[in-house]
Design a protein that fits this description.
alpha/beta; 14 helices; globular; binds S-adenosylmethionine
Length: 294
């Protein structure tokens, strides 16, 4: 996969609160092209990086040969981070999650993450281990189940209409491409909804991606595991982009804080500034939460 520009979100804030230093090891649970990892390495720390997407993981050192000495890449899901740390003999001094997908997925993956491109409806981060695709989800789910998915995971207000349109259309032929799905959504939603700033297909695409990759379960399990493996005194930073993910992280941190396992480093969620959003529009919905293990 070609290296396109994925600009790391809230980079200065991540470095300020993660405090990477020589002699420390940071676990980067969502390595991607290593935007954050490179900045961590620049502070003298080592990085154990987990990346679920096999294409991105394999291309890592092709695009970042300069990081070969300081970064270890593991192609796996961060859900398995306890085993991964044990295998590498690492007790992390700091842990970072930068959830969701990257510009590489939208731009060059060819897997249907973007409603702006005509591609197969796949949406898997790891097509080698995950048998579920967006196409299967659309063609095989009961209409009520599809409606629930769009409402719960995409907060899509026209979930019922879109699910009904999918159910009707697939009777003639299964849905296979992003363009077919976008056309169907367009036909199912009212005209005013088609002309808003946020594209009418955004929420449907988000919901399908979340379910295809089991993202909410992953976040719950991955962040819980991260708290367990973190060295006492170490910090855990989570950047989320969706309300549902942010809620899972907030609830988990609240419970663990009450239990005396962690403490908040910043009570307030950190958001990008206007200048950061202008430079990197993808950062606009980013929310950074930080805790320290006691
Ligand atoms: C927003 S990007 C991270 C960008 C990175 N911090 C940077 O600055 O270059 C999120 C990455 O997490 C990966 N990912 C998603 N779910 C994952 C999981 N369960 N385990 C490991 N990686 C995952 C995606 O494939 C994607 O490459």
């Amino acid at each position: 996969m070609r290296d396109t520009t994925h600009i790391p979100v809230l980079l200065d804030e991540v470095i300020r609160y993660l405090v990477p230093a020589p002699g420390t090891t940071v676990l980067d649970c969502t390595l991607n092209g290593g935007g954050h990892a490179a900045a961590v390495v620049a502070q003298g720390a080592k990085v154990l990086g987990i990346e679920w997407d096999p294409v991105i993981a394999r291309a890592f050192f092709v695009n970042r040969p300069e990081l070969a000495e300081s970064v270890t890449v593991v192609n796996d899901s961060y859900v398995h981070l306890e085993r991964i740390c044990a295998d590498h003999g690492v007790v992390p001094d700091g842990i970072l999650f930068d959830l969701g997908l990257s510009s590489l997925h939208y731009g060059v993956s060819g897997r249907g993450f973007s409603f702006m491109r005509d591609e197969p409806l796949d949406m898997r981060f790891n097509p080698e281990t995950n048998p579920m695709t967006a196409s299967r989800l659309l063609n095989e789910s009961q209409p009520e189940e599809l409606e629930r998915i769009l409402r719960e995971y995409g907060e899509e207000q026209f979930a019922g209409q879109i699910a009904a349109a999918v159910a009707l259309s697939r009777r003639a032929a299964p849905l296979r491409t992003t363009s077919e799905l976008v056309a169907l959504i367009e036909s199912a939603v009212p005209p005013w909804y088609r002309h808003r700033k946020i594209h009418y297909a955004t929420k449907t695409f988000q919901a399908l991606r979340v379910v295809v990759n089991d993202e909410l379960v992953n976040v719950q399990e991955g962040v819980s595991a991260a708290i367990r493996v973190l060295r006492p005194g170490g910090r855990l930073l989570v950047i989320s982009f969706q309300g549902v993910e942010d809620k899972i992280v907030r609830e988990l941190f609240k419970t663990q804080s009450k239990a005396g396992v962690i403490e908040w480093v910043t009570r307030k969620t950190i958001r990008p500034t206007w200048a950061q959003i202008k430079e990197n529009p993808r950062s606009r919905s980013a929310k950074l939460k930080i805790i320290q293990k006691l």
